[in-house]
Amino acid sequence: MLPAYIKIHDAIKKDIDEGVWLIGDRLPSERDLADHFEVSRMTLRQAVTLLVEEGILERRVGSGTYVASHRVRDKMRGTTSFTEIVHSQGKTPSSKLISYQRQLASDTEIKELQLEPSDYVIRMERIRYADNIPLVFEVASIPEKFIKDMKRDEITEHFFKTLVSHGFEIGKSRQTIYAKTASERVASYLSVSRGHAILALTQVSYFSNGNPFEYVRSQYVGDRFEFYLENN
């Protein structure tokens, strides 16, 4: 027969898996949970502690116990695709294409991608997912001159791999990160409320010869993704 705290552990985990409590939700107090499960607070605390150790819950001093974010983590180490990042976490990446257009380069795209005013770009908007959870809304601009011989799905689904298969050598990237809040449109794409905390990232990726080939503006859900650095 399973100990009482294991049964409570399994019940809370089941509720989280089924969406009764969502990422970032605050759980009821220990007293309320103990009353709900008809156990002592000590037994309840054993169950919660086990869930914390497993990374399912997190305790915040002076605030309470919350459903942990299960963030996808990216070590900022250069030019890496979203697909590679998500695969490295043992999760399944996917994406939904919102728009795909051929347009004259904007002033910002001309500057970032070192283009002429008469140059065209392919500009696409996507929602990127990990295990079907929306993580990022992304706008990517790619100079048309580099991708004329590529099929649309090669560009939208496995762009970096496609570049390599066409003989391009990928080099460095330049990234800028800043904080902002989600607009109503972005919030609807990412299944969060308007004003939710966002990690905004702009990235320019370069070929090994120094030519920029992609300019990306990404908006990550702040409690589902994190960037980190390691210094020697």
TrEMBL record:
The keyword GTP-binding does not apply. PROSITE patterns: HTH_GNTR. One of its GO terms (biological process) is negative regulation of DNA-templated transcription. Keywords: DNA-binding, Transcription, Transcription regulation. It comes from the Bacteria. The keyword DNA-binding applies. CDD domains: WHTH_GntR. SUPFAM superfamilies: Chorismate lyase-like (SSF64288), Winged helix' DNA-binding domain (SSF46785). Transmembrane segments: none annotated. One of its GO terms (molecular function) is DNA-binding transcription factor activity. InterPro entries: Bact_HTH_transcr_reg (IPR050679), Chorismate_lyase_/UTRA_dom_sf (IPR028978), Tscrpt_reg_HTH_GntR (IPR000524), UTRA (IPR011663), WH-like_DNA-bd_sf (IPR036388), WH_DNA-bd_sf (IPR036390). This is UTRA domain-containing protein. It comes from Streptococcus uberis.
